[in-house]
UniProtKB/TrEMBL annotation, chain A:
Ranges annotated as spanning the membrane: none
Similarity remark: Belongs to the iron-sulfur cluster assembly SufBD family.
Example of a GO biological process term: iron-sulfur cluster assembly
SUF system FeS cluster assembly SufBD core domain boundaries: 187-415
Domain of life of the native organism: Bacteria
Matches recorded under PANTHER family: PROTEIN ABCI7, CHLOROPLASTIC
Domain SUF system FeS cluster assembly SufBD N-terminal, residue spans: 34-178
Entry protein name: Iron-regulated ABC transporter permease protein SufD
Pfam families associated with the record: SUFBD_core (PF01458), SufBD_N (PF19295)
InterPro entries in the cross-refs: Fe-S_cluster_assembly_SufBD, SUF_FeS_clus_asmbl_SufBD_core, SUF_FeS_clus_asmbl_SufBD_sf, SUF_FeS_clus_asmbl_SufD, SufBD_N
Automatic annotation (TrEMBL), chain B:
Protein name: Fe-S cluster assembly ATP-binding protein
PANTHER family reported in the protein's UniProt record: ABC TRANSPORTER I FAMILY MEMBER 6, CHLOROPLASTIC
UniProt xrefs under Gene3D superfamilies: P-loop containing nucleotide triphosphate hydrolases (3.40.50.300)
One of the record's GO molecular function terms: ATP hydrolysis activity
InterPro entries tied to this protein: AAA+_ATPase, ABC_transporter-like_ATP-bd, FeS-cluster_ATPase_SufC, P-loop_NTPase
Pfam families: ABC_tran
PROSITE patterns on file: ABC_TRANSPORTER_2
Similarity comment text for this entry: Belongs to the ABC transporter superfamily. Ycf16 family.
Species annotation: Aequorivita viscosa
SUPFAM superfamilies, A to Z: P-loop containing nucleoside triphosphate hydrolases
Residue span(s) of domain ABC transporter: 2-246
Length: 448, 249
């Protein structure tokens, strides 16, 4: 058999395995689940569209082939415990937070700290089964998620994830951490967390999301998060991607914004084997503010693909994108940023910036800004740079007695500063600075 | 302290410095003057160890040891300091954190522990006062949005903090108004002592009114063509460089 044919067959078999598992899963579900129909429709879409391939423009630089060849376990019902000591570093333990924690896709009541006081910070599985949550599920679930193959696959298998519902005018006092651990109890694990976040009128929330493998076994996560920001809502969302080299992530995040809402998403991509971020903003009301920022620092054969969409469907809104990438060794990065401005969306201000540093000859970045503007009175700008370290700057630092690695680190911080400075949780910012320092193997002896 | 012997160095196989000889002893201040493109800044960069310049011939001895093969940070650890003509902006790193890093990295190389925080603070306060630098300035990002004068003052602040054996000041007077020039010069004069040495690279004589050199050298086409005392600087100011060219012919 030719290698390509074999390849196809293996991928087909993972798809088949998923389709077969779905039938088994459907049998388990409560008869009156509010999302029966949604699931059934979703699996049909997945059956029809399957996994994306490089033939699709949006996946031109990212191939899932290698990942899909693994024989993944799809459903884990075992409750695998982990020691607090072992996972403590992955929490923002310096401050008090709500925590929604999953171990191999199963909710961990031991590690979590949820609440129903004033706000709902709890589980998708609970929201799907309890009747009091039914109206919210019916109003929001799967309403903005794309109907593509990969998102539909997640929708069909929706089992658990974070369910966050913040009522109007409520300011959540502490950040919420959503952490998905995998223990390596299976040789290869396929995880599909599904999060729903509804932020009411004038409500405020800060969320930190993380996926973390605790072993060297393979993990592939296909995560879907829907976020609804009602009028004047404020959402500050941080994605920390610093997973092991045997873990891969496809993150599909959909954000819908109403009048005057503000949503910031920061993505820190430092690790993992393959990471694909599909980050989609839909501005539905006037005077929205959307901010998408990211720092990517890669080495080895790591691959991170940022695929962003900001769809302006209302006038007088703003969007800001600022992605910085630093690529060492044979790592590859992709930045594909699309700004879509509908004809009705006059007087919007859309800004996109993507700067990259290639440290080694073998490192690659594919950068592609895409602006589609149908309105005639708008301010849209984008800039993209690819370069190396500034030799004069390096010499300046080294001439002060600072070693070459430490000097490079300082320049990296300086380069990433426009993103780092807008992290609003000081302890998180400190943590990210440390992650960067560890990543490049330096100790600077001060907090930036 | 510094001895340069028959130094040839340049970029991409083309020598800019064509046989420099210079000896600087502890306690001395030397001024190197010369027209644009004569190789003044190249000389400064070569002494400090900038990678892109290649030394093709000759020697640079610092305290009797060759430093030609040392990295810039190794030269700094031995006590060589270069005040830059165009200091680089480093957003997100404050002046204070930068200088702390520089001092502690140097101490690490000298197998000393970090400077105790209280001692560091005291030193920062003392040197900032000497250069009339206010506290707010120290928490700003290094050189980011600094005026020309602020950048130079910051360079001299770093010089004062690091207290090197040899300081090379490359066009420190450029971009300074007369008041800033006085403050910076006073600072340099206070740093000056019998154990260190200063090399001033300058276009104009006016800096030398404030920091009085023991020796003045004229650099032209990559060579030191004339050396003398401070009177030579006055002569250059008055007559320009052409008469030296004529003399050479």
């Amino acid at each position: 058999m030719k290698p390509e044919t074999l390849n196809k067959k293996l991928i087909m078999s993972f798809k088949d395995k998923l389709l077969t598992s779905y039938i088994a899963l459907e049998d388990y579900l409560e008869f009156d689940s509010p999302i029966h129909d949604v699931r059934n429709k979703a699996i049909k879409i997945f059956e029809e569209k399957g996994f994306p391939t490089k033939k699709e423009e949006a996946w031109k630089y990212t191939s899932l082939n290698k990942l899909l060849k693994q024989d993944y376990s799809i459903i884990s019902n075992k409750e695998n415990n982990v020691e607090w000591k072992k996972v403590r570093p992955y929490f923002l333990h310096e401050i008090d937070t709500y925590k929604i924690v999953f171990i191999d896709g199963v909710y961990s009541s031991f590690l979590s700290e949820t609440t129903h006081d004033d706000v709902d910070v709890c589980l998708m599985s609970a929201a799907l089964t309890k009747s009091k949550f039914k109206p919210v599920i019916e109003t929001y679930f799967n309403k903005i998620a794309k109907k593509d193959g990969i998102t539909s696959l997640n929708t069909a298998f929706t089992k658990d994830g974070a369910y966050i519902n913040i009522p109007a005018h409520k300011e959540v006092q502490k950040p919420i951490e959503i952490i998905n651990f995998s223990t390596g109890s299976e040789a290869a694990m396929f995880l599909q967390p599904r999060n729903l976040i509804v932020v009411g009128e004038n409500a405020h929330v800060q969320i930190i999301e993380r996926h973390q493998s605790l072993s060297e076994n393979k993990v592939l996560t296909n995560s879907v998060t829907e976020i609804f920001a009602e009028k004047r809502a404020y959402v500050d969302y941080y994605k920390i991607q610093n997973d092991t080299d045997t873990s891969s992530l496809i993150d599909n995040t959909y954000i819908s914004q109403e009048h005057q809402s503000i949503c910031h998403v920061h993505t820190f991509a430092f690790g993992g084997d393959l990471v694909r971020n599909n980050l989609n903003f839909y501005q539905k009301g006037e005077r929205c503010d959307s901010t998408l920022k990211g720092v990517t620092i890669l080495e080895g054969n790591q691959h991170v693909d940022h695929n962003t969409l900001v769809h302006h469907t209302a006038p007088n809104c703003e969007s800001h994108q600022d992605y910085k990438g630093i690529f060492a060794e044979s790592s590859t990065g992709v930045f594909n940023g699309k700004i879509l401005v509908d004809k009705i969306a006059q007087k919007i201000d859309a800004f996109q910036q993507n700067n990259n540093i290639l440290i080694d000859d073998k490192a690659t970045i594919n950068a592609k800004p895409q602006l589609e503007i149908f309105a005639d009175d708008v301010k849209c700008s984008h800039g993209c740079t690819i370069g190396q370290f500034d030799e004069d700057a390096l010499f300046y630092l080294r001439s002060r007695g600072i070693g070459v690695k430490e000097s490079q680190a300082l320049l990296m911080y300086a380069f990433a500063n426009t993103v780092l400075e807008s992290v609003k949780i000081p302890e998180l910012k400190m943590r990210i600075n440390k992650l960067i320092a560890n990543k490049i193997g330096v100790s600077l002896g001060f907090e930036l | 302290m510094l001895e340069i012997k028959n130094l040839y160095a340049g970029l991409d196989g083309k020598d800019i410095l064509q046989g420099i000889d210079l000896k600087v002893n502890a306690g001395e201040v030397h001024a190197i003057m010369g027209p644009n493109g004569s190789g003044k800044s190249t000389l400064a960069s070569v002494i400090a160890g900038k990678d892109e310049y290649e030394v093709t011939q000759g020697e640079i001895l610092f305290e009797n040891n060759s430093i030609v093969d040392l990295d810039p940070e190794e030269r700094a650890h031995k006590g060589v300091f270069l005040s830059f003509q165009y200091p680089v902006e480093i957003p997100g790193v404050s002046v204070t954190n930068f200088i702390k890093t520089a001092i502690n990295e140097t101490r690490k190389a000298q197998k000393l522990g970090d400077m105790p925080a209280a001692e560091m603070l005291k030193l920062i306060k003392e040197k900032a006062d000497m250069l009339e630098i206010d506290r707010k300035f120290l928490s700003r990002s290094l050189n980011e949005g600094f005026s020309g004068g602020e950048k130079k003052r910051n360079e001299i602040f770093q010089l004062a903090m690091l207290n090197p054996k040899l300081a090379i000041l490359d066009e420190t007077d450029s971009g300074l108004d007369i008041d800033a020039l006085k403050v910076v010069s006073n600072g340099v004069n206070k740093i000056r002592n019998k154990d260190n040495a200063i090399v001033l690279i300058t276009h104009y004589q006016r800096l030398l009114d404030h920091i009085v050199p023991d020796f003045v050298h004229v650099l032209m086409n990559g060579r030191i063509v004339k050396s003398g005392t401070k009177e030579l600087a006055y002569e250059l100011e008055e007559k320009g460089y052409d008469w030296i060219k004529e003399e050479l012919v």
